[in-house]
């Protein structure tokens, strides 16, 4: 048995379902608290985005409700 079996595994958060329905700026602040090094990009829900996987990028897909950009889909790392 190797020493690494005893090392605690730290799981980093990769999605934020709790921010769906929030204003985009509030959601961005919440995500930044947990992942301060991330590049966060706010885009309309139907926008095309890059398909390459980047662990430092998070898209926030929004729908505008009453003039306020609101999170429409769960933001995820990628």
From TrEMBL:
InterPro entries reported in the protein's UniProt record = Prot_inh_pot1, Prot_inh_pot1_sf
Is Iron one of the keywords? no
Protein keywords:
Protease inhibitor, Serine protease inhibitor
**Is Repeat one of the keywords UniProt gives this record?**
no
User: Source organism's superkingdom?
Assistant: Eukaryota
A Gene Ontology annotation in the biological process aspect, one of them, is: response to wounding
One MF annotation (Gene Ontology) recorded for this entry: serine-type endopeptidase inhibitor activity
Indicate the family of this protein: Belongs to the protease inhibitor I13 (potato type I serine protease inhibitor) family.
Name assigned to this protein: Uncharacterized protein
Instruction: Give the originating organism.
Output: Lolium multiflorum (Italian ryegrass)
């Amino acid at each position: 048995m190797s020493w690494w079996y005893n090392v605690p595994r730290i799981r980093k958060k990769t999605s934020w379902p709790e921010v769906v329905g929030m204003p985009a700026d509030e959601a961005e602040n919440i995500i930044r608290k947990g992942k301060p090094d991330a590049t966060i990009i706010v885009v309309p829900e139907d926008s095309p985005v890059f398909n390459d996987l980047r662990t430092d990028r998070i898209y926030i897909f929004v729908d505008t409700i009453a003039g306020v950009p609101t999170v429409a889909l769960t933001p995820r790392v990628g």
